[in-house]
User: Fold this.
Amino acid sequence: MPGLIRGVARTAVVAGTATAVSNRVSRRQAGRWAEQEAQQAPPPQQVSYQQAPPPPPPEPAAAPVSMDSKIDQLKELATLKEQGILTEAEFEAQKARILNG
Assistant:
């Protein structure tokens, strides 16, 4: 029996050593490959800040507001004025904006 335990222990030591060596070799190779890739990679492109970015696309034209919508907005304004939320000047300014827009 002592011979069996000794054999198992020896196998465990050999297997553990082999695993440790294998891991170390793998890490070393990975480091070398990373260095090679870094050396072979093209240099990063330099960004030129002298060029202005392209202008944003134009905003789509606003859809024409229907007369029903204008009437609804004017009714809401009148309600706000009656409740005292809008002053006469604010009401007139908003009314002109709705009718001219």
About this structure: The chain has two domains: 1-42, 67-100. The two ends are 102 Å apart (CA to CA).
